[in-house]
Amino acid sequence: MKKMLFTAGCAALLAGGPVLAANPVAGKEKSKTCAACHGPDGNSAAADFPRLAGQHYDYLVKALADYKAGERKNAIMAPQAANLSQRDIEDLAAFYSRQAGLSVKY
Amino acid sequence: MIRITAICLSLGVALASGIVQAADGNAAAGKNKSSMCAGCHGIPGYKTAFPVTYSVPKLGGQHAAYVVKALQGYKSGDRTHPSMRAIAAGLSDQDMLDLAAYYASAAVLSASK
After folding, report:
1. Which residues of B touch A (CB under 8 A)?
2. How many CB atoms lie within 10 A of CB B109?
3. Does residue A72 sit at the B interface (CB-CB below 8 Å)?
4. Nearest CA of chain B to the CA of A1: how many Å?
5. CA B6/CA B23 separation, integer angstroms
6. What is the ipTM of this complex?
7. What residue segments make up the domains of chain A, in order of their start?
8. How far from chain centre, in Å, is Cα B59?
9. pTM of the full predicted structure?
10. Fold assignment, A25-97
11. Closest Cα partner for B38 from B107, B105, B103?
């Protein structure tokens, strides 16, 4: 029984792996280039550049992946995203999604 | 001469402020137009179901200029999400400005870290 629980625990840890891999501290380190337009914490000062602070993690991952794949077109973001690995994208999204900023409004 | 210059200057200021006003959205009007948006963007944790699944973006506190640019992108086809393309197709320029003014007006928390 103990062995079964141990196995189940290991499986749960492994299954949680990809989620745990996103590292907001590493994301902050990688966000220095982004800060020029989006602000140091994702609350951009210029209205043309979207606020990222507090945005959903999975939306940010999708947006960066789409820029990288060319499915979302933007002259500034395309070359930025082209150089990001999947790990970079997840770290950046983890950092920005944890900052205070955007809210759900209705 | 000074008087003419003063008149020209005040006319110029009046014209310029008129242009700025015309390009502004009305947040109250935007709220009335936002019922279509609220079904997805107004529900905490709501996810798109098509074509792929992910959380719909938060709009409260987003910059108005960016929201307008995004809506124009959907209308023109530069941005491709099917639901947003269908909705933006029916929006006028003024609708976009009003909606953007409404969403931008949420209090934005200052970041703590």
Report:
1. 34, 38, 41-44, 52, 54-66, 69, 78-80, 102-103, 106-113
2. 15
3. yes
4. 37
5. 26
6. 0.79
7. 25-97
8. 10
9. 0.79
10. Cytochrome Bc1 Complex; Chain D, domain 2 (1.10.760)
11. B103
State the Cα–Cα distance between residues A55 and A96, nearest whole angstrom: 7
Taking domain B26-104, whether its CATH number is 1.10.760.10 is answered by yes
> What is the domain partition of chain B in residue ranges?
26-104
User: Which residue is listed with tokens 């990222």?
Assistant: A52
> Rg of chain B's alpha carbons, rounded to an integer?
19
Integer Cα distance of A30 and A42 in angstroms: 13
* Chain B residues with beta carbon closer than 8 angstroms to that of A50: 62-63, 66
- CB atoms A59 and B54 under 8 Å: yes
State the nearest Cα–Cα gap between B50 and chain A, in angstroms: 13
pLDDT tens profile A28-72: 999 999 999 999 999 999 999 999 999 999 999 999 999 999 999
